[in-house]
Amino acid sequence: MATPEPPAARQHLGHGVGLRVPHFEQALGPGLDVDLVEAISENFLPGGGRPMAVLQRVRATMPVVLHGVSLAIGSVAPLRHDYLDRLATLIERIEPAWVGDHLCWGAHGHHHSHDLLPLPYTEEAIEHVVQRIDAVQTRLRRALVLENVSSYVGYRHSTMPEWEFLREVVLRSGASILLDVNNVIVSAVNFGFEPQRYVDALPSDRIVQLHLANHADRGHFRFDSHEGPVPEAVWQLHAHVVRRHGPITTIVEWDNGLGSWTQLREQADRARANEAAALAHGSATP
Amino acid sequence: MTTSLARLQALFWRAITHPSGIAAFLRDADDATREAFAEAFAGTPQFDARARMEVYADAYFWRLHDVLLDHFGLLAQLLGRDRFRNLATDYVLACPSTDPDIRRFGARLPGFVAGHPEAARVPGLETLAAIEWAMVRALDAEHAHAPASRARLAQVPLPQWPALQLRLVDSASLVDTTLPFLALWQQHDRDAIAAGPLPVPATQPRHTIVIWRERLSVMHRGCDDDDEAAALRQLGEGCSFEALCERHGAQPVVLWMQRWLDDALVCVAG
Q: Residue A172 is part of which domain span?
């Protein structure tokens, strides 16, 4: 294995939102009044037309981070080198602050689920994922940023909690963490653990970005819906993350039932205010 | 090294892609598979492993269904919600996604529809799917050459015109259809799918729809006649202005060219 790439530098780029199609008019017109945006990599792989025009317009005015959903870093299916080539081309064109995807699997054989399927938390899985991260980082010539996913089922084979698995993967691979605060809460409810315990176990210097979003209460479980404004429980855990790990670049995700641009931008503003309040009421203890 | 992981992922995949969900998967499975499932996935009394896996099985189907609905909205409106869902189910089973970009999932739908029983009920249905797919493709296709403008071509010296190499812009597609597509498109309403199927449209003589992107907008129109369609197909393969005139005559080509330039349909190769 090659020497791991250094983790993405922990720059605080501010507070922004996930760029979605309903925002394209705003982006092409008055512009997006946030600090940065996160773009779903796959949405811009074809490389032309309205999506690319929007992304280039946005990139001219603010930092962009790329966030993929189809890398399938934990799949046993072979890595898609054609996909990595397309991603590398997009990276060259956009020059994102960093590039990320999810710590999960999603492809089987030649087929894609387009879902974020959970991995068993085992030594075998760590070794497999670290090997593939190394291959991807070598191809893209940069450290990856990996996000924890919401989970609904666990494996009896798992030998460690998710936070230990995530920590081991990033420490051994040189990757960094995109900590999705909402996903921690969803999984905490679905598996019965304390979300603070998850957050506290992570290495501060590896967390380069946060996600905030809403989830749905489906009675006996929580579902990662990305519908509606960020709920209070997520704001509270966000404050805990900031007190524990310090200020971190934050993106609000809102995919379904999207409100107006103003509503979304206000969520990014609240993330900024929540971070400032958390820092004022308790120093970071990395 | 990945034997256990590979076994788990294979089992997970078989379970969530079963046509009728996790309960049916377990009912149809052999004893060894049921035992492997019980050994693999953990649950709680309130939320057992079967129900937990059902979350993923539902998400697998509905995510793919919804992207088809997004891309083939008129086809869905024509069939109505239930028949479109059945078509989508058949397609998901027959043509699982092979591209990391979910927005490419519908690429094989026109060909699939051609062999589906729905195409026998609605003649020409596959051409409607082909037109809608061409629209999806046109939205973000990269133009290797910018569309030619009247101003640019006015600068080409007259002696160079015969050898001028012309092409359709990369986002352009041509689809032959016997459906009254332009009239159907007027009725297109994404919120009307629940209202049930539209009446089966009467077929028309075969004609050609051209789909392309002008600036950031996807455009379509019917070709004037078979000659214009043939000329556009000739441009699709790339040809000289002289070759175009030799086949169709200079006068119609000059008239077409004016419209093609206004439409931003053609570019100069090289």
A: 15-280
